């Protein structure tokens, strides 16, 4: 089929050259085809012009027929660039390179012009059929001819006509059954009816509720407009919105308290799964609430990161609160210029996009700030209790606390803890706001609609700086890991028929008598006097009484051995395995520099060194030593513990290891120092110590 393409192109080609500088089974039929064409080629044929590599121009009739021309061709420089430009000048737009790679196509790209197609028919280290068919396809879509029936012969494929217009489709995919598609009730779940949540389920026997969802910048692109310290954070108002929705699910009307211990950072690609859990009520009717997340792609055993926790309450007797917005702007309130508000917030590390830039006007009166906020026309707030972007914009007005003649400081940042939050009306798209300063880092919030009807209220909101809030990881994606020793795959057997050498006598005490059918040597020179085995065992443990001196001595011996081993070509095909931990007197500090040096050498010279960690007092039988060495062929480090062979693997730190969430303290009756204890975080830590410990 490829030959057929070039037979058609041959009548219009401007350069025809058959080369035997390479050989490929795929190229043979094409070379035969070109030989046939070449035999009947007349250099004077105006339909088949040939470019001369001597002149870089079209060859004159009869020019290529003389021996003198070919002598000159061998002696003179190849005018390749001029030749390609001459072809381009003749209107040639398709160039096919017949050679073992695409070198000439790359060289000719600049000379041939921007609109030219340059196609190599073979590429080094690539599948010949794939490259040839790709070239055929490229030529075909640029006007070349292809016999697709010949290409598809024997494959079972068939040509398919393209649709004649955009909406004429022919489907080739099987149509799946619609049974169970899109109905989560078939999975035993309910629909929470919220844009950030996908499913809800009551917990049997526990009187609790679990709500789940998935957040991503692809499914909720408006979240990208909320960035703190260059990271896209789910706003604290969105986490509060989830808690409010959870409260509605269980019949509570107040988020009594909600603390945000860790930011929820969204990745640029992929998503994050979230869970909102509500516990069963206590005697007073309060319920615990928590929001956790785990990134997509984590295994099902990965940890969930806590982002919000608090309590829900049912206080239906509490009156709907608000403030008098009948006089607007409020009397005696001084206007605050908000034109550069978002530039100033960006300088503080809070970068808000158009969706979150909802602050329209602000006024200041002592410890009160009044504001108008609204959603953009293209943002629908009707599906939320209170759209997080609108609620967040209401908090942006707090910058005005520092916008006076020096009698106040700005209260800017991101939410950290909420108290006494109540939603009185849902679906608002515009608000009038009153913020009342209650402390250095706290304020009360009241929200009403333009008619003055209450929408939401917050008894206390504690904020923290952008720098403190922006240091989180992507939903806990940067988990803590440690090295865990796990059993190697089942490996049994005795030492291989090939000998194993023991360098020095320090290791002999750790090997059973039935295994000492091995080659022994006092040093490297003695070892090299005969054929060097594929594996050489050595220990450099020091018996000096001082631990520091012993560590220095072991490190020096290891370094000398590594250097001498690498410098001698007689050891090039062998592997030097350092045995550590075998001596009863060995301490971790003595072995530590040995392990570190050997690991560095392994990185620089893969396959030349190994580490075998043997527990003190262990005696290696022929079977156990053979199994350890067999595993060591594929592992850089192996340990023998309890009669088994272990290998190191990374594992997540769990609370049982003391790394996440666990604490073995018992500080009752003792004294604990909390640094930074006067801030909002210090208060939360102190409360946790009292309640939890």
The tally of helices reads: 16
pLDDT < 50 stretches: 10-23, 41-46, 176-181, 404-409, 473-477, 655-663
Strand arrangement, largest sheet? Answer: 3-4-8-9-10-7-15-18-17-16-14-13-11
Cα-to-Cα separation, first versus last residue:
80 Å
| Largest sheet report | 13 strands, antiparallel
* Overall pLDDT confidence: 80
**Residue share in helix:** 10-25%
Provide an overview of this structure.
This protein has 693 residues and is an alpha+beta fold. It is 25% helix and 23% strand. It contains 16 helices and 26 strands. The N and C termini lie far apart (80 Å). Residues 10-23, 41-46, 176-181, 404-409, 473-477 and 655-663 have low confidence and may be disordered.
For the structure shown, list the relevant keywords.
single chain, 693 residues, alpha+beta, 13-stranded antiparallel sheet, 8-stranded mixed sheet, 16 helices, 26 strands, 25% helix, flat
What's the gist of this structure?
The chain is α+β, with helices and mostly antiparallel strands and 693 residues long. The chain has 16 helices and 26 strands. The strands form four sheets. It has a 13-stranded antiparallel beta sheet, sandwiched between helices. Strands 19-26-25-24-23-22-20-21 form an eight-stranded mixed beta sheet. It has a three-stranded antiparallel beta sheet with strand order 6-5-12.
């Amino acid at each position: 089929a490829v030959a057929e393409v070039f037979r058609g192109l041959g009548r219009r080609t401007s350069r025809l050259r058959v080369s035997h500088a390479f050989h490929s089974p795929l190229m043979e039929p094409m070379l035969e085809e070109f030989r046939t064409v070449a035999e009947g080629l007349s250099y004077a044929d105006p339909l088949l012009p040939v470019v001369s590599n001597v002149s870089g121009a079209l060859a004159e009739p009869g020019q290529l027929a003389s021996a003198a021309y070919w002598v000159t061709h061998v002696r003179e420089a190849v005018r390749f660039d001029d030749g390609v430009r001459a072809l381009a000048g003749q209107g040639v737009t398709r160039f096919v390179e017949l050679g073992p790679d695409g070198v000439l196509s790359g060289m000719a790209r600049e000379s041939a012009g921007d609109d030219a197609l340059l196609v190599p028919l073979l590429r080094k280290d690539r599948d010949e059929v794939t490259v040839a068919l790709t070239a055929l396809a490229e030529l075909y879509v640029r006007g070349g001819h292809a016999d697709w029936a010949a290409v598809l012969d024997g494959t079972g494929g068939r040509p398919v006509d393209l649709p004649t217009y955009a909406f004429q489709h022919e489907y080739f995919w099987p149509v799946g059954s619609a049974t169970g598609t899109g109905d989560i009730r078939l999975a035993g779940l309910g629909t929470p009816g919220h844009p950030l949540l996908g499913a809800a389920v009551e917990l049997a026997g526990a009187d609790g509720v679990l709500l789940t969802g998935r957040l991503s910048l692809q499914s909720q692109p408006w979240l990208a407009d909320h960035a703190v310290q260059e990271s896209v954070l789910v706003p604290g108002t969105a986490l509060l919105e989830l808690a409010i929705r959870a409260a509605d699910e269980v019949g509570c009307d107040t988020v009594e308290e909600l603390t945000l211990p860790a930011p929820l950072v969204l990745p640029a690609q992929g998503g994050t799964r979230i869970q909102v859990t509500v516990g069963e009520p206590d005697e007073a009717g309060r319920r615990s609430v928590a929001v956790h997340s785990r990134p997509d792609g984590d295994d099902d055993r990965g940890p969930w990161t806590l982002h919000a926790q608090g309590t829900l309450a049912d206080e239906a007797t509490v009156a709907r609160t608000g403030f008098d917005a009948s006089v607007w702007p409020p009397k005696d309130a001084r206007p605050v210029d908000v034109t550069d508000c978002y530039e100033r917030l960006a300088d503080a590390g809070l970068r808000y996009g158009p969706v979150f830039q909802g602050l329209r006007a602000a006024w200041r009166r002592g410890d009160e700030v009044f504001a108008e906020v609204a959603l953009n026309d293209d943002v629908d707030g009707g599906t939320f209790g209170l759209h997080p972007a609108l609620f967040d914009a209401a908090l942006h007005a707090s910058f005005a606390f520092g916008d006076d003649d020096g009698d106040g400081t700005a209260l800017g940042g991101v939410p950290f803890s909420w108290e006494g939050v109540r939603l009185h009306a849902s679906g608002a798209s515009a608000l009038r706001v009153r913020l009342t300063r209650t402390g250095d880092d706290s304020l009360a919030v009241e929200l009403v609609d333009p008619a003055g009807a209450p929408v939401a209220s917050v008894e206390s909101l504690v904020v923290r700086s952008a720098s403190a809030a922006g240091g989180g990881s992507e939903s806990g994606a940067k988990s803590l890991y440690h090295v865990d020793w796990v059993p190697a795959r089942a490996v049994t057997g005795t030492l291989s028929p090939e000998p194993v050498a023991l360098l020095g006598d320090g290791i002999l005490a750790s090997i059973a008598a039935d295994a000492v059918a091995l080659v022994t040597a006092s040093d490297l020179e003695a070892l090299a006097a005969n054929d060097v085995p594929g594996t050489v065992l050595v220990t450099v443990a020091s018996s000096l009484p001082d631990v520091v001196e012993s560590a220095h001595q072991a490190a020096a011996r290891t370094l000398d051995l590594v250097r001498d081993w690498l410098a001698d070509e007689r050891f090039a095909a062998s592997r030097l395995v350092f045995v550590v931990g075998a001596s009863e007197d060995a301490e971790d500090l003595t072995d530590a520099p040995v392990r570190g040096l050997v690991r560095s050498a392994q990185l620089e010279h893969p396959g030349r060194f190994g580490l075998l960690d043997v527990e003190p007092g262990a005696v290696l039988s022929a079977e156990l030593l053979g199994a350890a060495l067999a595993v060591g062929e594929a592992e850089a480090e192996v340990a023998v513990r309890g009669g088994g062979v272990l290998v190191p693997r990374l594992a997540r730190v769990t609370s049982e290891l003391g790394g996440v969430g666990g604490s073995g303290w018992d500080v009752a009756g003792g004294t604990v120092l909390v640094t930074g204890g006067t801030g909002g975080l210090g208060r939360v830590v102190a409360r946790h110590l009292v309640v939890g410990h």
